[in-house]
Amino acid sequence: MNQQYPVTGAGLGLRREKLNEMLSNDLSPLGFMEVAPENWIHVGGSYGKKFRQFTEKYDFVCHGLSLSIGSPSPLDEDFVKDVGQFLTAHKIKHYSEHLTYCSDDSQLYDLLPIPFSEEAVHYVAERIRRVQDILQQEISMENASYYTPAPGKEMEEIEFINAVLDEADCGLLLDVNNIYVNSVNHGYDAVEFLKRLPAKRIRYAHIAGHYNEDEDLIVDTHGADIIDPVWELLDKAYEHFGVFPTLLERDFNIPPVDELLTEVKQIITIQKKWQRPELKTQSNTN
């Protein structure tokens, strides 16, 4: 395994309502799976036992929902410690979160953009470093979709992301669909943006579908099939960076598992297209 990446191949999110269906399906195309820790911490009983069946068989990563790294409120260190215990208990390979905030005095139930400012870079990077100190491991931050910039913008989105990653010395969860969504909503070149991301910090990626509200407004829903321009952007990403682990996100309007696996297999097809011969040879000898 490439030491830069905590997992390999193509992945799929594990959702509670799909547990039985997934247990009865052939999931051999999957290289890894992903869960939101908030949905599984302290879950026991039959759900807990079924979850353990998956974690004992597949490599897992966690993608959090409520760390709220950009929140003006203090970091919830007790929650971070709970996450750490969960990661250890289930031998989770990596933990990622959104480069956004979702709480102040209480939960806001949305992922809101952080101001693209120098002050925000320092603030967020310090909080990320604190999380990493508590967990005693690197975490990754995901480039987020947003619909209007937060007040106080001093730099472009790509500059803000790169500055946070550098100062925090953390990984990047590269969300391909979010780049496409933001490129349409905010009028920039998706491929140019993609190429300015730091290759060495990519740990894995997300790809998903979305909803076209208007010709210049896309809503990031994770509730539809992936469209051709997003597949093409993933192809460009592999061409530029090399192949990295990539997970299919589907959170709403979830189809049967065999349909989800069709898109997972599409990821694998594109990965194979760009797999370097020397990596194929190495994989065959492992």
What are the main properties of this structure?
286 residues; alpha/beta; TIM Barrel; 8-stranded parallel β-barrel; two-stranded antiparallel sheet; 12 strands; disordered C terminus
Q: What this model shows, in words?
A:
By secondary structure, this protein is an alpha/beta fold. The protein has a single domain (10-285), classed as Alpha-Beta Barrel (TIM Barrel). Helix content is 41%, strand content 18%. The chain contains ten helices and twelve strands. α3 links the parallel β3 and β4 (94-98). α4 packs parallel to α5 and α8 runs parallel beside α9 (257-274). It is globular. The N and C termini lie close together (9 Å). The model is unreliable at 278-286 (pLDDT under 50).
Structural class by secondary-structure content: alpha/beta
Strand content: 15-25%
**Class, according to the CATH hierarchy?**
Alpha Beta
Number of strands: 12
**Going by CATH, what is the homologous superfamily?**
Divalent-metal-dependent TIM barrel enzymes
Number of helices: 10
Q: How many structurally independent domains?
A: 1
Shape designation: globular
Low-confidence stretches: 278-286
Query: What Rg, in angstroms, do the CA atoms define?
Result: 18 Å
Helix content: 40-55%
Report the span from N to C terminus.
Answer: 9 Å
Largest sheet: 8 strands, parallel, barrel
